[in-house]
Fold this sequence. Notes:
The chain is an alpha/beta fold. The chain has 2 domains: 3-48 and 321-430, Aspartate Aminotransferase, domain 1 (Alpha-Beta Complex), CATH 3.90.1150; 53-318, 3-Layer(aba) Sandwich (Aspartate Aminotransferase, domain 2). It is built from 14 helices and 17 strands. It has helices spanning 14-22, 50-62, 73-92, 106-121, 152-161, 181-184, 207-216, 236-239, 264-267, 304-320, 322-341, 370-379, 392-397, 414-430; strands at residues 30-31, 35-36, 38-39, 100-103, 139-143, 164-168, 189-195, 220-224, 243-247, 258-262, 280-283, 288-290, 346-349, 360-365, 382-383, 385-387, 403-407. The strands form 5 sheets. A 7-stranded mixed sheet has the order 4-10-9-8-7-5-6, sandwiched between helices. A 4-stranded antiparallel sheet has the order 13-14-17-16, with helices on one face. Strands 1-2 form a two-stranded antiparallel ribbon. The protein starts with 13 loop residues before the first helix and ends in a 5-residue tail after the last helix.
Amino acid sequence: MTALSMPEPALIPEAELAAIRADFPILQRQVRGGVPLVYLDSGATTQRPTPVLHAMEDFATGRNAAVHRGAHALAEEATEDYEEARGDIARFVGARPEEIVFTSGTTGAINLLVSSLDAASTGRGGPAAWQFALTRGDRIVVTQAEHHSNLVPWQELAARSGAELAWLRVGPDGRLRLDDLSQVVTAHTKVVAFTHASNVTGAVTDVATVVAAAKGVGALTVLDAAQTAGHMPVDLPGLGVDFAAFSGHKTLGPHGVGALYGRLDLLEVLPPGFYGGSMVEIVTMTEATFQPPPTRFEAGTQPVTEVIGWAAAVRYLSEIGMARVEAHEAALTARLLAGVAGVPGVRLLGPPGIDGRLGCVAVEFDGVHPHDAGQYLDSLGFAVRVGHHCAQPVHRALGTHTSTRATLGVYNTPAEVDAYAAALATVRPYFGVGE
């Protein structure tokens, strides 16, 4: 399901929401001299519920060991936990366990894939990997809406391979201009890498339309699902993408862990781009052979404790129900958008309505720098993000350089949203602007 087919927005009932919030001890904090914390930065990092913290502690104190190594009891138990966690995370995005490669995060996943494509471009992987090779005359397509993590690696691959880098533009409302697809995705296109949702405008991409254009010319599709995986139902095979990346710390899990999803038939012939222990079969002094996927792509020591915590996080979200998470956040977003619309001197970056939109609400204050606005809001207890959010091109496309961004999570309440909207109306007067 995408936000384009979102159910009618409905808040999680008050009593259930209170129980959810009780699972997040950090939400009870006071900051800046005793004001209550209102956490509105889930697009950067979500908070972790106690089941995640307990799962990590339980593993670390009872079964901590290196996985896929050793025959002792702890190693066997750790490996079993690790692979069970892979299964939980795979189910969360509709994938098979063998299609989930653990990485350090979304950035690590995209860079791993780029390194593997680069290896194929130098002839590694043999004839079966030629489909991944890029060379002069080929084209890599990205978009202006990308986080730098899904832009800079492709810039570098284009520079190394000689391929051309092209991109889809965004319109005034922050949505991708998909009417340009036929001009940008040409017969020379080998890769189309695009965001599932912008971390600035909240605009959700019409994945089916992009995938159809890419398939029409035989190009690989790479989806950045960092902003969507913890906020709406995501079925990666159902979306039809070839590869995708997402992170633990944006889905109620820990930092330092993420995943690369890849269609199994592609992973089976894709050469690895990182090398070391665990991922090899036979090593001589002159050559090596590699394990089947996903182990082939998991060189070195894995973040096992973090994987265990991440699995607990996606189970927690699944128990609430991702359709309900999406609807709750959509109802809060509609409330916040209405509040923003009533504040003079504040410009919304992104679509004004909730259709095809996530709870990512970035604004620009007339006459007030985002860093000043952020510090003032922080003094009131509101944790929001300021700056370019690692997405400079989309800001430039929208006629600005930085913004003040609030991003919602399943644990946010209508009262918090209303309080934030009211606080926005005080920013410019506080700085003596627009009085």
